[in-house]
Amino acid sequence: MTFNKDEIIFLEGRPSHCAYIIESGKIGIYREDSSGNRFLVRKLSKNDLFGEMSLIDKYPRSATAIALKNTRCMIIERSRFDYLTKFNPQFMVRLIKLLTEKLRTTIAKLNKAQPLRKNRVAIKTTVSDFYDIKGE
């Protein structure tokens, strides 16, 4: 399947019926904050698998995928995905490695953000104390 630049492939919160493997092009994975602002979480390129999380846990899409340039993807329907996870050990090993990599990347990003979070709390506390602001 081919997607044009800026074309939405799937939306966060929507049901899932397939995963994708990029054959050419680039995909951006986006999340929305509580204000509805979209921010880039990850860029994907040739041979990357995406959209698989919803096929594994059957929850709605956890992010939005948008083509960053004209992109061609192979589609893996849910039934094929289920078959591969049950009967293809190599696929399962690659899937586990992919999920482990994504988890490590997420942990690294959280660890990197932790000092920033501590600084924000320290600034908020200092300002609250200085102005004698009571609250949460």
Q: Specify the CATH homologous superfamily of the largest domain.
A: Jelly Rolls
Roughly how many Å is the radius of gyration?
Answer: 19 Å
Quick one: biggest sheet? 4 strands, antiparallel
CATH level 3 topology of the largest domain: Jelly Rolls
- How many domains in all? 2
Counting DSSP E segments of at least 2 residues, the number of strands comes to 8
Poorly predicted sequence stretches spanning 5 or more consecutive residues: none
Q: How many angstroms does the end-to-end distance come to?
A: 50 Å
* DSSP summary: helix tally: 3
* Helix fraction by DSSP (H/I, runs of at least 4): 40-55%
- Classify the secondary structure makeup into a structural class: alpha+beta
Please tell me the overall pLDDT. 87
- CATH class of the largest domain, anyone? Mainly Beta
The CATH architecture category of the largest domain equals Sandwich
Tell me what portion of residues adopts beta-strand conformation.
25-35%
Protein architecture, described:
There is one protein chain. This protein has 136 residues and is of the alpha+beta class. It folds into 2 domains: 1-87, Jelly Rolls (Sandwich), CATH 2.60.120.10; 89-136. 42% of the residues lie in helices and 28% in strands. It contains 3 helices and 8 strands. It has helices at 53-57, 78-87, 89-130; strands spanning 2-3, 8-10, 18-24, 27-32, 38-44, 49-50, 64-67, 71-77. A 4-stranded antiparallel sheet has the order 1-8-3-6. It has a 4-stranded antiparallel sheet with strand order 2-7-4-5, with no helix packed on it. The mean pLDDT is 87.
